Amino acid sequence: MTRIDPVELTRELVRLDTVNPPGNEARCLDLLGGLLTEAGFRITDVPLAPGRPNLIARLPGTEDRPALAFTGHVDVVPLGSEPWSREPFGAEIEGGRLYGRGSSDMKSGTATIVAAAIEAAHRSGGTAPVELVLTSCEEIALEGAATVARSGRLGRAGALVVAEPTGLRAATGYRGLVWCDLHFTGRTAHASQPEQGDNALLKAARAAVTLAGWDFDGAEHPALGRPGLNVARIEGGQNYNSVPDRAKLGIDMRLLPEQALEEVERRLVEITGCARLERLMATPPVWTDPSDPWLQSVGRLLEELAGEPVELGTVPYSTDASYLAPAYGDVPVLVLGPGEAEQAHQTDEWCEVAKIGRAFEIYLRLIEAWAAQAGAA
């Protein structure tokens, strides 16, 4: 069996352009699927669309035991308008940093979980209870993971590791993500006599100011903090000499686990007086209490490797765990990856090479500890 260098595999993935849209993730997932197949994994493809696979990988004969599941995506965001000082798909290494789009978010994490799983398969003689979920289209509404979760093709798992960028700082949850449009109606009139009309755009503007100061009625979580709301878009009006009779306000919300989405939406309509609320997307929050026994064992392992106390924190972004963790049966979730969260979607994105190596060691130790516990059980 060929051993996989996670740094070189990261470079191979970064060199493959998977900007979403359109994605073209097959160019990465075909490579990873081939490596896993060679290492003895059975591959299940759950396609999102032509050229956009989602792969589930598991060692045959381990299906009777709950696995430690890992997940990573291979699509990346567009390059942005600011010029890059390095080739964005060059995967250059300089000063201990690997540069390129996706180096932190999250091809380094995806490459490393694949390399660690293959190494665990080698060391265990093909008996390690590990399952990989490698997705397309994470960057747009987590569509790949949602497709996998609905497929019913996942195996049994007892915990989930998400290799998103955290700089190897462990996290156990994040707020849910909601996008919605608030629609406002009015009455048109000639602009020379605006008092004859009812300006829907002004209604939307007043609502935007109101929402910017709304505190969600004081909602707060001890670890995740306060929910958030960003007024992201405002649209209205067709010409300069008419009073707008239609307007739309687009908002992004980050909600806490205990917040009922329907109640939040009811309050939005109440506060803004909008004619209609249109929900565009809603991905659930993820939260595992750090007192969970598996997370406690993870914390001890990380402290052993780091040689110092480790705090289990949170991350600000959403991940594929929003769909995969419930599909696995609401398993505990750990978000931990070699990339830097601050580098995600940035020009001249980079990842520290040394952290890729450390992530490989952490993932391998997690798999081995899981396998040892499963064997003892």
Give a description of the structure.
The chain is an alpha+beta fold. It folds into 2 domains: 6-174 and 286-376, Aminopeptidase (3-Layer(aba) Sandwich); 176-283, Alpha-Beta Plaits (2-Layer Sandwich), CATH 3.30.70. The chain has 9 helices and 15 strands. It has helices at 6-14, 26-38, 103-124, 143-151, 200-212, 261-272, 293-306, 321-327, 353-376; strands at residues 42-45, 55-58, 67-73, 93-94, 97-99, 130-135, 157-162, 173-174, 176-185, 228-236, 246-255, 276-283, 286-287, 333-335, 350-352. The strands form 4 sheets. It has a 6-stranded mixed sheet with strand order 1-2-6-3-7-14, with helices on both faces. Strands 10-11-9-12 form a 4-stranded antiparallel sheet, covered by helices on one side. β4 and β5 form a beta hairpin. The longest helix has 24 residues, at 353-376.
